[in-house]
Specification:
By secondary structure, this protein is of the alpha+beta class. It is built from 3 helices and 3 strands. The longest helix has 19 residues, at 45-63. Residues 2-50 form the Helix-turn-helix domain. It holds the Pfam family HTH_17.
Length: 76
Amino acid sequence: MYLTVKETAEYLTMPDSVITELILTKRIRAIHDGEQYLVNRDQFQTHLKQVERYRELMEEILNEPIPEDLDVKDED
């Protein structure tokens, strides 16, 4: 499915200008139909899956309880 620059920006929650810059620097693949750039949405699936896995990993790490240190002595 092809998206316009505006639709791509909404899909990735980024500003239109950033998407346009990424297209012009060839960091996002797009085709130009003579009037506008069209971006294939499927090229982002792997990236979005990796971001989701990273988010889950960070949540797991942050929610892990801190073990008590056996060598800590109470100074009171």
